[in-house]
Design goal:
Layout (H helix, E strand, L loop, with lengths): L19 E2 L9 E3 L1 H5 L5 E5 L10 E6 L10 E2 L9 E5 L7 E10 L6 E2 L3 E5 L29 E2 H6 L1 E5 L10 E6 L2 E6 L9 E5 L1 H7 L2 E11 L13 E6 L9 E2 L7 E3 H4 L4 E7 L10 E9 L7 E3 L4 E2 L5 E7 L1 H5 L5 E9 L5 E3 L3 E6 L9 E2 L6 E2 L5 E6 L10 E9 L5 E9 L9 E6 L1 H4 L5 E9 L6 E2 L3 E5 L4 E3 L3 E2 L6 E2 L6 E6 L10 E8 L6 E6 L6 E6 L9 E10 L6 E3 L2 E5 L10 E2 L6 E3 L7 E5 L10 E9 L5 E11 L2 H6 L1 E5 L1 H4 L6 E10 L10 E2 L4 E5 L7 E2 L6 E3 L7 E5 L10 E8 L3 E10 L4 H4 L1 E5 L1 H4 L6 E10 L10 E2 L3 E6 L4 E5 L2 E2 L15 E6 L5 E6 L4 E2 L5 E5 L5 E7 ...
Parallel strand pairs: 2-9, 10-16, 18-26, 28-35, 36-44, 38-45, 47-54, 56-63, 65-72, 75-82
Antiparallel strand pairs: 1-2, 3-6, 4-5, 4-7, 7-8, 7-9, 11-14, 12-13, 12-15, 15-16, 17-19, 19-23, 20-21, 20-22, 20-24, 24-25, 24-26, 27-29, 29-32, 30-31, 30-33, 33-34, 33-35, 37-39, 39-42, 40-41, 40-43, 43-44, 43-45, 46-48, 48-51, 49-50, 49-52, 52-53, 52-54, 55-57, 57-60, 58-59, 58-61, 61-62, ...
Length: 1035
Amino acid sequence: MRFGQVRSIESSVLIIPYWTPLSGHPENLDGGITAAALAADANGLLVIIEPYLGMALNDELQVYWGAGQAVLPSPIIIDLTNLDKPLFAYVPASRIANGISEVWFELRPRVGGVRSSARLRIKVKRTLPGGVDPHPGEPGHQGLAAPVVPPNLIDEQYAQLGVEVYILSWANMAVGDIIELSWGSVTMRQEVRLGQVNQTIEMIVDYEKIIAAGDSEALEVKYRLFDDVGNVSAGWSPPNYAQVEAGGGRLPAPTVREADANGYIDLDQLDGLDVTVQVYASITGGFRVWDIIQVQWRGFTATGLGPLLFEPEPFELQTLPYIASFTVPNQRLQDIPQGYAEVTYELRKFSGGSAFSSRKLVRILGALRGLQAPTVLEAEEGYLPDTLPAATVRVKAYPGMARDQVVRMIWDGRQSNNQAYHHAEERLIREDMVGRFLDFSVPARHIALLKGGTVNVHYRVLVSGNEPLDSEHLFLHVGDGVPVLVQPSVDEAENDAFDPTGQAYATVRIRIYDDMLAGQTVHVEWSSAASGGTYRLSIPVTVAVELTAQVPVEFIIPSLNREVYVRYWVTEPGQRTRYSDDLALWVGVMLVNPPTPYIAEAEGNLLDLARFIGNATVTVEAWRGINTLQRFWLRAVGKLASGADKTVTLANGVLVQIGEVDLGIRRPLLRSDLHQLRDLSELRIEMTVTPHGSQNEAEGIAFPQPRYVVQQVLLTTPRINQASGNVVDLANFTGDATVSLDPWRSISTVQRVWLRCRGPNNWLVTLANGVLVQPSELQTGIIRSLPRNRLLELADNASLTVEATVTLDGSSNENTGTVFPTRTYTFRSSPVRLVVSSGGLTTGALPHDWAHARETNHVAVVGQPGAVVTLSLSGTARFTGNLQTVQVTLDGVGVARQAISCTATSTTLSATQAGRPTVTAQIAFRGSFPADGASGNFQAKANLATGAFADGHSRNRISYDTVTITGIGSVRVTLTGSARFTNYPGQVADVPLRNGTFDAMIDVVNTQAETISVTFQLLTQGNWARFTKTMTFTA
């Protein structure tokens, strides 16, 4: 990082030391922030503003992170201590939004308008690729599936073609993720591309890599993941093992004398001793006198760092057979606890050429050791003088130290006014530096600025292609002695906050401290980064009692909505000065700059329900001043599929619990509620807190309201393909039924599906029981046969429900899955179905002068096309032609129709097929024909049959008649819905009345199952002759 590049505000950008620079990113990003970067410092994410042109006293600067959200707890004020110097500040992690944001800073000068820096596009990802390891104590990331490798021997012919390795999809999988596959000691990388998310990824290990890794009866294959901003999965996957004999190692593998039968070396049992590698050389093994053996030890750390190469001195064979021994220093094993080493040798033939051995894999047991904190040679008892010409930061040789690594020494300071300060220096490790300490010289200017403050010294090891490794931290006080006195208190402060409203001063209280004596002087300091916000006074000690000091409010007001630090120190002639710990206080209302709630499973502003399982979690990080007296309201507000508002109340004026004071608020947002929201609709999170526990939400402080776009999984609804509407009728098809589940959004081959049909009396047919989605089903969906013989077990008219479940993460536990919408059918098992229209007039109810057809009801026989069915009527009912029994053949769509008359008010219709059960239906007739409209002796009336099959051909018959009316030529009949006349166009017809009898027969058909209205009107007779009746058509 280069400073001193003074630019205008508009051409300056915010410096973020711990970001991941990105170039050529498809989303046009400047950089990324990882979860590790956010967690690197408890104070937040370090940012730096370089000196700019026109920098002046009392300039005020604030940092913004997306959507105009100010993120620094208080603005940076330019004063004499930081004028024309780099400005350092920490952005609380809780105020940094997930996803892509524009980041910039603004200058509010004492004179003139607000000016903004150039903007950066930054992507923040708090989630790791692969998610959280659910069992971190077990070997390998237990949230990742082991890679799938060929189960058979990989010989040279197989290796020549390349070996396929399959990586199953993982949690938080996204475009741009990188898979790093470890094939033995050889690694390769592959990027996830568009269309591969939530799919199984195929990687091909080519012949060269297979040969380079060598032969093995159990070659370890594993992988780890990187996302596009630099997050690394929480460890390598569980390993799988490949059996390789491809010619990469023709000589026998060496032995490691200290390894047990399973290839393990325990560092504790080794007790500091070196390790011996042995090679058995014989003529039959291909060795010859004067051949040279060169052993190679390739170490790999538990985190995958490596190879850490060591080559002992080569050995020349002078006699055969012979056991050649080579020493590997103990430090080489100390570098890789819980890691492993691959041991091989090269045989350099005296006659020319070389041969190579197979590999011996050795695993190292022992406690993991992190990177120890550096030391500062000039520091003593945690105290670093501020007058030094330079300070020396020493980094000892660390485990895994290797050439081409970069070590970054970090000097993170806090000035006496609590202003942040940062300095860093990098060093490239050369071959001759491995195993030696590194010294960094820190110039005086980086020390003197921190007088009265502290410095946090640590280092980071940067290894190409690996996650950075961070050392432990060394904390030093600069210029002042080590705090040995208990911190002061402020009487008026509450919950680490001081509200100056109505206060004339703040009372600083100093308890009796050790060795308190008359003649000492207590110096009290109220320190603030705000101009005019620092106050100091001295109190002579005359007797050992509690002391108080009053800080006038005029020195407190400048720090409104800022943090201040209160401390004291004691001076005494001839004695070293003693200092107290600092007391940090917030000045102002306890709850200020509240954090933005967020949904942990969201990526940026997208909440994709296919990207996680179970419920979502709404998280609100603990805010400054949080305490158990406060009440909060938390809601999620969205839109239902209907467009209506949907509010999910997660907390309704509840008190903060004691555990939430440290951990913040976590509330589950149920997946069942999320599934009700409209696809791609907005979801808003609302949070309000009443600082002093009021139960009136209107008195509370509203938190920022993040907005998300909800993307539904959009599960399809299973169906039975042979159904007609919601009816499954065996008469309508032959053979088995088929159940289909169309492809849903995010379908992938790692998902497991359950598909079942249920009926009454515990009837159950399981069609898929936790099976993996097959590649072909990504296009076709799930299709399964439903056996006809199982359907015949159901009673006629039974309910039949199809249900399905999918586990999006491939879990075998159906209870963790997502349930598809169900579909319920009415099952009909009769060989044919009889759909009748009833309610027509008996022959006796028809007028005596009725000259039309006397068949007033109808039946539609529905079944298999071409089926021959015998129909019979009971009693006096007859088919057309005065027949009581007829034989009909179902037409090309499986329907036959008959008209029926009857002298009685009911009859039973029977339908039989050879070898099939008889099907019956009751048909009702009406025995009277009352008037619907009358005027004096004039009458008009209509009788409507109802219930006909809605196939566009089956009829509901209308009988219409008038009494004592003459000279009327027609009746106007009007239909509603989708109904139509058989003999007239449209839905309004002037139907002729038969001359002399003035009556009519009218047939109505429909293609829709519905109830319709029929209106009759004699146009010359007025309203009495106008009436409306209804009829129904059946599916």
